[in-house]
Specification:
Layout (H helix, E strand, L loop, with lengths): L6 E2 L3 H6 L4 H15 L8 H23 L4 H21 L1 H5 L7 H8 L9 H12 L33 H8 L3 H19 L10 H26 L4 H23 L18 E2 L3 H7 L2 E3 L4 H6 L6 H6 L8 H14 L5 E3 L2 H15 L13
Parallel strand pairs: 1-2, 3-4
Helix pairs in contact: 2-15, 3-4, 3-10, 4-11, 8-16, 9-10, 10-11
Length: 377
């Protein structure tokens, strides 16, 4: 269905409950928080320090493996650290920048957003997939590409079930490791073709020809630096370098997938679908609450590393606010949601969220999945 025809509209039941006023009231309260405390909605000094750390975690081990370490164990350790650095940049730095939440200066956002290039991806494609599709049509089958991963996984009850899906709760964790490997190899090219057909490139003010040349050139540069240089200068043989390179990507893929998927593919999600006229019978903000969950809200260091994305509810309702503020505004969001008798899903720990995600994968792999709904926490 044409994306331009999809509309979110509160149902009659929601209208009677006053749910359509929820987001208006919530925005007013969140705006008041920043104004009354004289706080910027963008990055602060802690965010700058974190950015330096994450970039260093990716670049410094790379330099050390080329110039200093010679033992196999230490070189492989550098590849492992780069994997965590890669995911850290994706979660904590470029993510905010590509949402224009890092700085009020658009030039800064553009520069920081381009950090996706040295970790193998395309910022333009990422913004279309994540900002335009995922954030607008969260968990809508055929619209949200985060739950549309082809035939190997079934993330929605609205997707076709295949026999292999009965085992997806087992093999999913392994497949997650290939997320960024797909980025630098085939995904950007397949996305570009798809976004051209859907006329989505215009949302980023770029042409197909420019994007194709840009992707090809940046991929060549990326592979030349992060695979070519180690093949020349690393002490490891060529197969050791390739193994370390894939180990880096596998770690980053697992980290990224296990942060994003448990926030949306869980038993509480309702996976809305547009009707024949393109209407989704729920308010957009209410749909975000129904299809998103937080986890480990009290874990300071975990939240620091994952870029506040354990507060996915706040992120989906306010993607233009830097993640360093999510914990503070989460109290406002939670209280306002309960005031309007709306759900606010939050798991106590990251392990709880992973367990619930695993249960959902198991249920979706069954012939007749029982998709139970849980109470808001």
């Amino acid at each position: 269905m044409d994306l331009s025809k999809i509309r979110f509209a509160a149902s009659e039941k929601e209208a009677k409950a006053g749910h359509e006023d929820f987001y208006k009231v919530l925005r007013k309260r969140v705006n008041s928080y920043f104004k009354e405390n004289n706080i910027s909605r963008h990055a602060n000094a802690n965010m700058v320090v974190k950015s330096i750390f994450m970039i260093s975690l990716y670049i410094v081990p790379f330099i050390l493996m080329l110039t200093y370490f010679e033992s196999t164990g230490m070189v492989l350790l550098m590849w492992i650290l780069m994997g965590f650095g890669m995911s850290g940049i994706g979660l904590s730095v470029m993510h905010d920048a590509n949402h224009n939440a890092y700085s009020k200066n658009q030039w800064v956002n553009n520069i920081m957003g381009k950090l996706l290039l040295p970790i193998g991806g395309s910022p333009v494609n990422w913004r279309i997939q994540h900002n335009v599709l995922h954030h607008t049509y969260t968990n809508v089958t055929g619209m949200d590409e985060d739950i549309d991963t082809g035939i190997l996984m079934r993330f929605s009850p609205n997707q076709k079930r295949r026999k292999a899906h009965s085992l997806q709760h087992i093999y999913a964790w392994f497949l997650y490791g290939f997320m960024t490997i797909m980025w630098f190899s085939t995904k950007d090219f397949s996305q570009l073709e798809r976004y051209k057909k859907k006329d989505l490139l215009k949302t980023q003010n770029v042409s197909y020809r420019f994007m194709l040349m840009s992707i090809i050139l940046t991929k060549i540069c990326y592979l030349g630096v992060f695979l070519g240089l180690p093949l020349i200068f690393s002490s490891l043989p060529w197969y050791g370098v390739i193994g370390g390179y894939f180990l880096m990507h596998f770690i980053a893929g697992v980290v990224l997938a296990t942060i994003f998927q448990p926030a949306h593919v869980i038993p509480t999600s309702n996976f809305p679908m547009p009707n024949d006229t393109g209407n989704i019978e729920t308010d957009w903000a209410v749909s975000q609450l129904m299809n998103t969950a937080n986890f480990a809200p009290k874990s300071t260091w975990f939240s620091w590393y994952v870029g506040g994305l354990n507060f996915q509810v706040e992120h989906h309702l306010f993607p233009n606010i830097c993640h360093v503020h999510y914990k503070k505004i989460s109290h406002i969001v939670r209280e306002t949601a309960f005031e309007y008798n709306l759900p606010y899903y939050s798991y106590k720990t990251f392990a709880d969220a992973l367990f619930e995600h695993g249960k959902q994968l198991y249920r979706l792999g069954r012939k007749e999945p029982k998709l139970a709904t849980a109470e808001a926490k």
